[in-house]
């Protein structure tokens, strides 16, 4: 299990670097960053909750991403202040978009399928 946790940690770092890079490089569609965000959340949850079944991690990652997106509809002063920071902007986003929900679904699904096919963690118990 410790080896799997290390794999997830490395994946989190790689996806984080790719996600931040996708926001800094002109010409990369913003949608790619949203897909990478969902992948990051999925692998981050796998890192934290290594014993959780993969399909439950998939559902939790979707719930997390959807919750963050829906919270963008909330305009409370302290939340707006956090969103204006670089880290707050990366984590909480800025404005609600229906398309982001689609991107989060695609990203979580990609991570889930990668987990099943390539990482081969809990393949027999995942569904």
- How many helices? The count is 6
Distance between the termini: 19 Å
Number of domains: 1
Overall pLDDT metric: 89
SS elements, strand count: 0
Low-pLDDT ranges: none
Protein name: DUF2809 domain-containing protein
Keywords: Membrane, Transmembrane, Transmembrane helix
Pfam family, one: DUF2809
Organism: Flavobacterium ponti
Description of the molecule:
The chain has about 130 residues and is mainly α. The protein has one domain. It is about 75% helix and about 0% strand. The protein has helices at about 1-25, 30-50, 55-70, 75-85, 85-90, 100-120. Helix 2 crosses helix 6. The longest helix is centred in the N-terminal third of the chain and has 23 residues, at about 1-25. The radius of gyration is 15 Å and the shape is globular. The model has no long low-confidence stretch (mean pLDDT about 90). InterPro entries: DUF2809. This is DUF2809 domain-containing protein.
Keywords:
single chain; 127 residues; mainly alpha; 6 helices; 0% strand; globular; membrane; transmembrane helix
Summarize the model shown:
With 127 residues, the chain is an all-alpha fold. 76% of the residues lie in helices and 0% in strands. The chain has one domain (2-119).
Write the layout of secondary structure elements.
Layout: H1 2-24, H2 30-48, H3 54-71, H4 77-83, H5 86-92, H6 98-119
Helix pairs in contact: 1-2, 2-3, 2-6, 3-6
């Amino acid at each position: 299990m410790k080896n799997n946790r290390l794999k997830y940690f490395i994946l989190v770092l790689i996806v984080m670097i790719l996600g931040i890079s996708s926001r800094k490089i002109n010409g990369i569609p913003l949608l790619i960053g949203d897909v990478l965000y969902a992948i990051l959340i999925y692998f981050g949850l796998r890192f934290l909750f290594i014993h959780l079944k993969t399909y439950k991690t998939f559902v939790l990652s979707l719930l997390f991403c959807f919750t963050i997106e829906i919270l963008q509809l909330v305009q409370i002063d302290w939340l707006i202040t956090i969103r204006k920071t670089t880290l707050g902007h990366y984590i909480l986003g800025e404005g609600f978009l229906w398309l982001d929900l689609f991107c989060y679904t695609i990203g979580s699904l990609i991570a889930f399928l990668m987990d099943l096919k390539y990482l081969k963690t809990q393949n027999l118990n995942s569904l």
